[in-house]
Structure formats: structure tokens, C-alpha cells
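Input.
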Amino acid sequence: MKAAVSDARGIETLKISNAEEPGDPGPGMALVRTRAFSLNFRDLMVAEGKYGKPAEQPQVIGSDMAGEVIAVGDGVLSLEPGDRVLNAPITSWLAGTMRPEDFGSFLGGNGVPGVFAEKVLLPAEALVRFDKLSFAQAATLPIAGLTAWAAVVTHGGLRPGGTALCLGTGGVSVFAAQIARGMGARAIMTTSSTEKAARIRQVIGEDVQVLNYRQNPDWHEEVREMTGGRGVDLVVETVGGDSLGKSVQAVCHRGTVSLVGVLAGADSQVSVRHFLMRQVQVKGIFMESASELRQFVRFVESSALRPLIDKEFRFDRVKDAYRHLQSAKHIGKVVMTMAE
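Output.
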């Protein structure tokens, strides 16, 4: 079968290779024919050898897929052949709090084989059924969508009528804004591009407020002005670095900062006074469990929310897909699809 593999030496060494068939599913397992995949910033890090310990030899990459069940093993009652499914990226994290050992089942990095292949064999409990979405749409949900759900709902505690500030226009931030609006909350987004600002309002909703952080480096003050001096209930912080201090200042009394990413660096300087005086809480978000993914899928399919796909590539154009993600010109998700 065909699979996308990496030697962790950069995008230019990615290639489509012949890989060994996964075989028949054993007890508790399911064999899936993949139809679509989505890319995440983590995938760039894996390809460049910057994520954990790379495998000793070229390995199948990728963590997000959607496809059809081909066969199931003994004891599997939740799935049957023909079911449309997507995967939980950390296959052993089924519910509750993540255990340290669960990280060893995080697909597509740190030496763990991924899902960018024609067929994959996965634990049935780590697969989630969907009905109304296309394969391309469903493939965007595992990492970006689930992380946004955790940041806004599971740990963010946003409520209808509240306000969420979502930093940037990548997959997590776009999902976070869509989730906030879908639950009756207000969404504010940031960007460095007037073109992206216009497109965000066009595809997500004219009621989404977008501010340009390059035109106004003190964007946290602008956010407070936009909220009548109160601040937002929740910040989905995807940037890290110096941005974290501004996020803490943008949030309201007893508000929450969901810390998702460190695109600008892992080290930050934050005034303790802001935490103490306004009782701000910062919560680290590292995705969520298969159980939460099921809840998120139910939310999506019962609402008007549809994943925003920036561009689709054929599977055999894996390098082009990675280059497009690396360019940071996208809004939403970058997807690869298998030929029918």
C-alpha cells in the first residue's frame, strides 16, 4: 500500500513509498481505508526532526485521518464495516485525565507510526463515527478541532453570551471562534493581514470582530476597549512568548487563558500582579480524550458549524501540502485526499 513517510530531515525529503499492509484486525482493533487527512503544525515539526526523538528509520507520518471501516476484530461491538470514522490522535487516552504513558500512543511523531497511509489499523475505541460531514471535513477534527473544543468548552468554560478572543487564523483558532459562535458566544480574532480579516468575516460570519496585531502591537488594550473595559471571558492563546502577558491583560476578572501553543516561543514574562488582582487562571491545553472527541463530533453534526478548509491537495502531492502549511498563508485547515 502507499504511505507518506519522513526521515525527519525536512519537507523536501518527504515521499510516498510502498509500505507493508497492516493485516487483519486482532481483538479490539479495526482496519480502516483512509479517505482524507489534515495537517497540523506538529507535522511540520516532525518532518524537520524538531518533535521529540525521531524514528531510527523513515516512518509513516501524520495524526489526523478520516475513512471507512473495512473490518473489525473480535470483541468490537461499537463499529462495523462501512462505518465512516475519524481517529483520536492519542489512541490510549479514552476518557478522563491523560496519563503520562498515554503520550506513547500519540500517532505520527516521537517514533510512533502515523496514519498517512491507504490503510490503518487502530484500536476501535479510538475511532469516532460521523455521518453528516465529508471525509475532508471530518479529517480536520482530531487535533485542531479537539484542541479548540478543549480550550473553549472542556477547560475554557465559555458560556452563551460570553466573549472569546482567538489568536491567529490557524486551524485551532478558527475552530475556537466557530465553536464560540455556535454556542451563542461572541468571537474576536487577531490577524496580521487585512486580506485574512476580510476573508474571516466572509466565511465565519460578519459578526466576528477581527483586529490587526501588527497595526496595533498593544492589541490587548484594543480588546478591552472592544469589551467596554471589561475584557474577554476567555483567550485561546496559540502564540506564547510575549503574547501570553498581553492575553492575561486582555482577559476579564476571573477570566481564563487557555494556553494552546508556543509559536512565538516557550518562554514568557508575565506580571504576577495581573494574576493576583484579577484572579486570572491559565490552563494548559494538550488536546483531549476520545470521549471528548465524540462529544465534539456530536456538537458539530448537530450544529451549522462546518470546518473551514483552506486548500485540498491530492495525497501524492504531500510536499506541496506541507509547503502550503509552512507558508502560513492559510486560514483554517490544509487537507490531503485519497483518489476515489
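The first helix runs from residue 41 to 47.
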